[in-house]
Design a protein that fits this description.
The chain is 67% helix and 0% strand. With 79 residues, it is an all-alpha fold. The protein is elongated, with a radius of gyration of 17 Å.
Amino acid sequence: MTCVCAARNVMVAEKLSCESTVYWHSLCQHLRSLGTEADEFLDKVLPTGIVYAKFLRRSVNVMVTAAERNRLRRLMCCN
């Protein structure tokens, strides 16, 4: 698996996919199921709240930008 994480424990927005989301969700669920013995590793894997909020904002902006580009392409094709 190629590294798709940035330096601050979040996905690179451009490489975000359904598969990578399911992978990270499953990994975090597994680590949580191990209890306190995996807390240190979980802390290393998960981003802080502020970093995660910034990531979400960037991801939404990427999606909106892509959606806007697609909308503009459709408008240009129909005219």
